[in-house]
Amino acid sequence: MSQSPLSGPSDFLERLLIAALSPAYATSIPWMFAAFCLAIVFTLRKRRAPVRVKVMLRATLPRRLFSSPSGRADWAMTLVNTIIAILFFGLVTIPVALISRPVGEALTHIFPQPRLALSGSVVAVVATVAFYLSYELGYWISHFSKHRFEFLWRFHTVHHTAESLSPLTNFRIHPVDSIITFNILAICNGITAGLLAFTFGAAASPYVIYGTNALILVMAGLLGTLQHSHFWILFPRPLNRLLLSPAHHQLHHSIDPAHHNSNYGSTLAIFDWLFGTLTIPPQRRPKLSFGVQGVERPHSAEAMLLRPLSEAAGTLARQGDKGRAGMPAAQSEIA
Fold first, then answer.
1. Burial readout 224-248 (b: 16 or more C-beta within 10 A, e: otherwise)
2. Is residue 138 part of a domain?
3. What is the number of other CB atoms lying within 10 angstroms of the CB of residue 284?
4. Alpha-carbon span 220 to 138, nearest angstrom
5. Domain-located, residue 4
6. What is the average pLDDT value for the chain, to the nearest integer?
7. 3-class secondary structure for the chain?
8. Averaged pLDDT, 19-29
9. Whole-number Å distance between alpha carbons of 40 and 58
10. How confident is residue 66, by pLDDT bands cut at 50, 70 and 90?
């Protein structure tokens, strides 16, 4: 979201509409529509007999996404987090330049050497891929940490209490959880920007679409949107160690202990593969249940917004600032 201050209610409404409708945002309605079209194509490929449009629509948008307590909570958190992002996230996210500038200057001071002289198009391709890998690594670090440390888990629990999955589950996140992720991504991207500036010079810019890294926007808009869908989409076998399909992420949300501590990445599987947290889904969808056992009234406003604050404060009070706190009892029931 824009970091400039709001000028009034009309400015806020304009930004709200842009967030919902502009393809500049990977979570916008146009990207959701494109992702669902992609999901339908994958689904129809597996069916030999023709499928009626009414049946396909019912399978694409099941009633539970709108009528179940979990589905309604997803809708509510989508609105809440969009509003909070517009109002505050620009104020609480580390600017990438704050990281990249000292990194580039430090490297230049330590290794005073000529920069690589490559064509602008080659540098743009390298920068595009580098920032995508940086984004994915930052996401993996953030996500892994939230399952590893109790203080962070208290906020991340909100996301895992979803008992049904839909693209709106992407927004079922405590605001503190989002702030942590955005800042880890900013640090990783800042380091990457500094490395690129040192290697290629200040002109090392990626290819962009609507001002966003083209590879990140397309992958997040299509594949990232589907990660929390109810479609059991699994890519061809050679890609299972490269890309994370919706099936991978459904296993991540499963309450089955066999699926715990796996598939932390966003759209790339390579960091899960490298760090030993990759679980490859079977071809046929197993019977899966989602949620976090032992959480009272998980879809209430109190459980999703207020309770994580008090529980996180209690964690600090018990264990101080010593870092790793171990897995809480409730987390032993989730992936």
1. bbbbbbbbbbbbeeeebeebbbbbb
2. yes
3. 7
4. 14
5. no
6. 86
7. CCCCCCCCHHHHHHHHHHHHHCCCCCCCHHHHHHHHHHHHHHHHHCCCCCCCHHHHHHHHCCCHHHHCHHHHHHHHHHHHHHHHHHHHHHHHCCCHHHHHHHHHHHHHHHCCCCCCCCCHHHHHHHHHHHHHHHHHHHHHHHHHHHHHCHHHHHHHHHHHCCCCCCHHHHHCCCHHHHHHHHHHHHHHHHHHHHHHHHHHCCCCCCCEECCEEHHHHHHHHHHHHHCCCCCCCCCCHHHHHCECCHHHHHHHHECCHHHCCCCCCCCECHHHHHHCCCCCCCCCCCCCCECCCCCCCCCCHHHHHHHHHHHHHHHHHHHCCCCCCCCCCHHHHCC
8. 89
9. 12
10. confident
- Picking from 244, 234, 288, 238, the residue whose alpha carbon sits closest to that of residue 45 is 234
| Residue 31: inside a domain | yes
- Domain presence at residue 216: yes
Chain centre to alpha carbon of residue 165: 14
What is the domain range of residue 319?
9-333
* Mean pLDDT of the region 50-55: 66
Q: Tally the domains of the chain.
A: 1
Question: Which of 54, 215, 49, 21 is CA-nearest to residue 127?
Answer: 215
In percent, the amount of the chain with pLDDT more than 70 equals 87
Weakest mean pLDDT among 77-81, 88-92, 300-304, 317-321: 317-321
β-sheet bridge partners, residue 243: 268
> 150-160 and 175-200 helices cross at what angle (nearest 10)?
110
Residues 324 and 289: beta-carbon distance below 8 Å: no
In this model, does residue 332 exceed pLDDT 50? no
Mean pLDDT, range 287-298, rounded to an integer: 92
Q: What is the pLDDT of residues 141-199, one digit of tens each?
A: 999 999 999 999 999 999 999 999 988 999 999 999 999 999 999 999 999 999 998 99
Q: Determine contact, residues 187/251, Cβ cutoff 8 Å.
A: no
Does 204 have pLDDT greater than 90? no
